[in-house]
Amino acid sequence: MSWKESRVVDQRLQFLSSYQKEEMSLTDLCHEYGISRPTAYKWIKRYNEVGPEGLLDLSRRPRSCSHATPEELVNEVLALRKRFPSWGARKLKARLERMNPNVAWPAASTIGEILRRSGLTNPVRKRRRTTPYSQPFSEVTAPNQLWCMDFKGWFRTGDGQRCDPFTITDSYSRYLIRCQAITRMDTAHVRAICEAAMREFGVPERIRTDNGAPFSGTGILGLSRLSLEWHRLGILHERIQPGKPQQNGRHERMHRTLKQDTTNPSAKTISAQQKRFDEFRRVYNHERPHEALNHETPGSLYVPSTRLLPRYTKAHTYPSHFQTRRVNDAGDISWHKSRVFISEVFRGEDIGLEKIEQDFYKVHFCNLEVGEFDVSDLRFRPGLRA
């Protein structure tokens, strides 16, 4: 009993004591204590029937609630939440409706209240919103128009080994194509994962990454050996602006979910961590409802690309009016009896020179214009960073 409530009960006892002693008339007592005659009769009746306990305020909570959520549905909600601790009320509701569409599941707000009463809600931290990127990245309207890839920040497994999760998603469907634990963020490892993904799911139209290695280089147009291979396959490489991760926002959001569900704490070994990633990928693609997809799963929307990865990449064929030159290991091409430096990133590759006017050529790699060549001074001038 609270202190305030005890004071009220004491006043009621004093009122009844005065009433029993007949110190005043009931009307005067009611006036003295500031209550109505019906209220006075109510407390007199309760005291006579129950004693001092009858002077406590009764709970206004109904003894029964006709619209209360049935216990079996509450148990279903809590069981699913136990299986997926990071899911909120809306995702739980969407998943339950998909599992048992004939059941009248409670509203998301009711599910949220069930979680709150069970101590299963976490305080919502408001994220500082960033101004959306407004540069003309092409709109995504179908699967495989754009794949996004990145490294999720590294961490150490229980045995102290460094783990760098490398991930690939389809931007349209949010389908998680790859989630691979690797120990080195180099071209060889990333190339192998990308090649395996394209063998399984086909070739995308565009790939979006940040400006770090091995996706980008510090030389001409920010090209790297890996991005050259993508251009050779006819894939346009998009790079977000430095320090603007929101330009790859869908992918970054997936990374937050990945961290929450698989790395707190990390597994004991790399192989054990990979098993967690594999299970996360399965659930993320085929079980976890996505609010931006109208609570559908990524797997219900994604289809592989019709562009198959060729077994062997053929050399690019330039138009007949181009002159073709092979770049040597030093990054040079031969021009009559002279050497002209282009870039070491093109070593072993063929470039095309398109004559624009006398002694002036545009330089191309596959379908990408990379700079200009002035014969008068035998100098190559690279284009602006893409």
Automatic annotation (TrEMBL):
GO molecular function list: nucleic acid binding
Pfam families: HTH_32, rve_3
The protein's name: Transposase InsO and inactivated derivatives
Region (Disordered): 242-271
PROSITE patterns found in the cross-reference section: INTEGRASE
Biased composition (Polar residues): 260-271
SUPFAM superfamilies with a match to the protein in the record: Homeodomain-like, Ribonuclease H-like
InterPro entries: Homeodomain-like_sf, Integrase_cat-core, IS481-like_transpos, RNaseH-like_sf, RNaseH_sf, WH-like_DNA-bd_sf
BP terms from Gene Ontology: DNA integration
Coiled-coil regions listed in the entry: none
Domain named Integrase catalytic: residues: 139-306
